[in-house]
Design a protein that fits this description.
This protein is an alpha/beta fold. Helix content is 31%, strand content 14%. It folds into 2 domains: 1-183 and 219-252 and 337-409, 3-Layer(aba) Sandwich (Rossmann fold), CATH 3.40.50; 188-217 and 254-311, no CATH class. The chain has a 6-stranded parallel β-sheet, with helices on both faces. The protein has a 5-stranded antiparallel β-sheet with strand order 7-8-9-10-11, with helices on one face.
């Protein structure tokens, strides 16, 4: 979704030439008949939100080796995003032939998500890679259509939508629908083994976790005054990292950033300290190999206890996400990561709200808060006003810790 150091080592990077920022979307088009697969076991995929992150997810879906998979529909509010992603996917030497999206299955607008999912049959997969404000809207329709889903994180930014998503997760599970969430670190085979080793006491009692992601400004979290076009609504969606209602702000997407300042020392790695030893969780980026454990607190070779060894075909956690999801669909295994995704998003929002209000906030208080940041987002159209409006000077409301104690803005 953004040209970050993270994307340089991930599948989101392959679509980098389609734009610097994924705008994302909640979307539109016209009604068309269902698309039926030539083979009964073909899984069809619809992409809702065609920025870098969405196109990367689509590329991973098409790279799964477990049976035939095709991309048959795409949707976004920005035509240039959809066009750029389609062209990049279509020209891929690895899976370009699996991209079957003619012009009448490319949808633009705020209800395009419905038209894209209408192209699928029950049991197919919808990818949601829009700003998080639209996640519950799309998930609701997918459940109605009997579709499996893959949704990018974060999932929510406030209490009301978190509660809504938790309920939807239960509804999806009751219908035996599979739901994957883009928490790629949880699909890192090295981190999975490291987690088990820590649980088994290899470094003693866990005392401290340290995560660093410090680099220059990235994404769309550093916006100037709205220039007057496109519409204020579309501009906010395009610059979603700058608006809590659309993304949870930079805090949600760049959770462990110590800073985003040019010219400073860059650090992007994570560690665990225990009572008997320590671990390098990620050598670089979010889950960069290798992971390792050491006796004592100095990660010297002489103290090495274990270093991860992962088969080449399982080293990409983004691809593992999709391999695991499609395996669950093909073999009808229980698979629903939404509750975990909502909880992770909610904890992020909890930290953000505590910082923005200057108050102590509990998990339950955040979950049960009544401030919904984008009410009526399911009714937005191209002519709608933005959920947050600037004043006469072009300024938006901002957090005031200690003054605004119950709300972030």
């Amino acid at each position: 979704m953004n040209q970050t150091q993270d994307s340089l080592t991930s599948r989101r990077e392959f679509i980098k030439n389609t734009g610097k920022i994924a705008a994302a979307s909640a979307l539109a088009g016209v009604a068309i008949p269902h698309v039926h697969a030539a083979e009964n076991n073909t899984i069809q995929v619809a992409l809702v939100g065609c920025g870098n992150r969405g196109a990367g997810a689509a590329g991973d879906a098409l790279s799964v080796k477990n049976g035939p998979i095709k991309l048959v529909a795409m949707a976004d509010v920005f035509e240039h995003r959809l066009k750029g992603s389609y062209e990049a996917l279509k020209r891929s030497k690895d899976f370009g032939k699996q991209v079957e999206v003619p012009e009448d299955r490319k949808f633009i607008g705020f209800d395009a998500y419905k038209k894209a999912m209408d192209c699928l049959k029950p049991g197919d997969v919808a990818i949601f890679a829009t700003p998080l404000a639209f996640r519950w809207v799309h998930f609701t329709y997918a459940i109605k259509k009997g579709l499996n889903v893959f949704m990018e994180k974060p999932l929510t930014a406030d209490g009301p939508t978190s509660r809504r998503m938790l309920k939807l997760a239960e509804e999806a599970a009751a219908k035996n629908l599979k739901a994957g969430v883009g928490l790629m670190s949880r699909h890192s085979r090295a981190l999975q083994e490291l987690y088990q080793r820590i649980q088994d006491g290899e470094i003693g009692d866990l005392i401290l976790l340290r995560g660093y992601r410090m680099h220059g400004p990235v994404g769309s979290a550093f916006s100037e005054k709205w220039p007057g076009k496109p519409t204020e609504l579309l501009w906010q969606i395009q610059r979603f990292h700058s608006f809590l209602w659309a993304s949870g702000g930079c805090f949600s997407d760049f959770y462990v950033h110590g800073r985003c300042i040019n010219g400073c020392n860059d650090i992007y790695s994570s560690y665990a300290q225990g009572s008997k030893g320590m671990a390098i969780v990620s050598h670089h980026s979010d889950c960069g190999l290798p992971s390792s454990t050491y006796k004592g607190q100095n990660p010297e070779r002489s103290n090495l206890l274990w270093v991860s060894k992962v088969n080449p075909d399982q080293q990409n956690p983004y691809q593992n996400e999709w391999n695991d999801l499609i395996d669950a669909i093909r073999n009808d295994k229980p698979y629903n990561e939404v509750k975990r995704g909502v909880e992770a998003s909610l904890v992020t929002s909890l930290g953000r709200m505590a910082a923005h209000t200057g108050q102590e906030i509990t998990f339950e208080e955040m979950l049960n808060s009544d401030h919904e940041y984008a009410p009526g987002v399911d009714k937005l159209s191209m002519g709608s006003s933005a959920p947050l409006r600037a004043d006469s000077n072009g300024k938006y409301p901002v957090p005031e810790p200690g003054i605004k104690k119950k709300r972030e803005f």
